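Weekly structure sync - notes
Attendees: PM, LS, DV (DV joined late)
Agenda: review two folding runs queued last week.

Item 1: First target. Sequence and structure tokens pasted below for the record.
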Amino acid sequence: SFFTTRDSFITYWVHGLSIGGGNALRTEWYQPSGALWSTHLDTLDQNIRYWYYYNHVNGPAVQANMPLGTWKVRFFVQNQPFDSLTFVIGVLGVQTQREKHVAITPNPARDYILVSGDYKDIKLFDALGREQKLNVNYFTNPIRIDLNGLPSGAYNLQLKDAQGQVAVEKVIVE
């Protein structure tokens, strides 16, 4: 996931099956340096068959001192690691978008898209920020990304080049 300096909050979600009452839940947020930024603790009141849990931190729009870069969230149940994920906080402004414009064809697309440029890491996220599995052929020019099996809708394509610069472009799947 990619968040910008304009985002007011960042939310982490997890879900699972069968968890007992009294279990301690802990969410830890780590800065790009690896230093702990925030910890949140909860205890479940009762047994739950199907459950979801979320926690959030104020984003860069509220906390201007949040470092840019790759962050990590870790989630524990009874002090045992249960889940983790990484996300990026970066600057994405109108000028950055103009400088880093990416040629994507066709867009809207059905089965595939072609991306012009030299990128080493390409990810696709749905409207809820969930990363989608992709089949990316980095060896073709332009780069070919197969979209087979993706439901129709709007997606954000995150592209990272060899220098670590990130571009985000909207992709419409018909």
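Item 2: Second target, run right after the first with the same settings.
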Amino acid sequence: MRLKIISGTLGGRFIQAPSGHVTHPMSERARGGMFNSLGNLTGKTLLDPYAGSGAVSFEAISRGAEFAIMIERDRRAQETILRNIESLDVADKVKLIKADCRAWSRRNEDQTFDIIVLEQPYGAIDLSTAGLLVKHLKSTGIMILSHPGRESSLTVNGVVVVDKMRYGDAALAFYRKEPSKI
């Protein structure tokens, strides 16, 4: 499966997605809507804890983000991401961590990001992991959780919903840190 980078310096380029149901690529429509709503990404950092193909990270870099960390535990997905990094020539702007995001989080507690995008694998909405990753969100940052569109916004400890978007069968919930947690 090929995915298209929508806009920015890499706009129109294609990347590969891992085959099978190991990953859950965000649709172009949802990805485009999400990034359009985020606005100018110049100088921003992104954490992509369920990287899959890396499409979210590559879109962020294409739109001006300074750096993205992609975390992926599946070997086939890791290999796909590495091929995509090479084909896009963005090794200086992204880093692939070959690990489970919970394990990475415990080892990197002080690392924070402007944007965290949670596009979890098929059928694996894990709110406890989302709650764990909140500590990596800068006080002014935003966390986005992709989930099935039929569900209402999901409650994640430490953050509050500030916006919602729906794209057919998919929905995005945008969260910011609770004022008392900043």
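Discussion on item 2: The beta strands are 2-4, 14-16, 45-48, 67-72, 94-98, 113-118, 137-148, 159-167, 170-177.
Action: LS to circulate a short write-up before next sync.
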